Amino acid sequence: IMEALFAQGQFALGAGRIDDALAGFERAMEIGRASLGEDSLPMAALYSQLAALHHRRGEQDKALASIDRSTQIRERVTGPDHADLVFNFSMRGRILEELKRDDDAAHAYEKARAIAEKTLGDKHPSLSAILQDLGRLHGRMGKTTEARAELDRAIVVAKAGEEPLAIAAAITALAE
C-alpha cells in the first residue's frame, strides 16, 4: 500500500494536484513509520517528495526541513556519498535560493556536484543540470568567472552524454 500511495502522490504532484499528492504522501508516511520505522530509505524518499511538494507550494521552510530529514536518513543508511543524495543536495540548493541564502545554496550545489562526479561520472545529465544551477546562481551573485566555467563545463558534460535536451538546456543556461 505504501508504494502505491507513493506512486499516486508522485503522479498527483506531476499533474499539479498538490492537495491530493500531500494526502497520499502523508498516508504513505504513516504506513512507513508503522511498518519500516522512521529511518528507512522509503521514508527518505517520501521526505524528499514532500520537500518537492512544499517547494512547489512556496513553503520553503517546510521544504527545507523535509529535504534535510531525507538527507539525514539517507546519509545514515547509505553513507554520505551515495548517488541518491545528488537529488537531495540539488533540491536543498533550489530551496535555499528561494530563501535568498545564496552562499548556502552554492554549498549545497557543490555537494551535489561532488557526489554526482564520484557516483554518476562525468557524462551524466544530472551533473550537467547541477553545473547549470550552480552557474546560474554564481552569475546572479556576480561571480562571472565561476559561472562561465561551470556553464561551459555543463555543455561539455551534456555533449559527452549525448543528451540533446541536456545540451540545449546547458547552452540556454550559458546564454542567460
3D structure, described in words:
With 176 residues, the protein is mainly α. The protein contains nine helices and no strands. The mean pLDDT is 93.
Features:
176 residues
> What general outline do the C-alpha atoms trace?
globular
- Poorly predicted ranges: none
| Mean pLDDT over the residues | 93
SSE order, one letter for each helix or strand: HHHHHHHHH
**How many beta-strand runs?**
0
Number of H/I helices: 9
Structure classification: mainly alpha
Strand content: under 5%
Reported for the largest beta sheet, the result is: none
Layout of helices and strands, plus pairs?
Elements: H1 2-14, H2 18-35, H3 41-57, H4 60-78, H5 84-98, H6 102-119, H7 125-140, H8 144-160, H9 164-175
Helix pairs in contact: 1-2, 2-3, 3-4, 3-5, 4-5, 5-6, 5-7, 6-7, 7-8, 7-9, 8-9
Short description:
With 176 residues, this protein is an all-alpha fold.
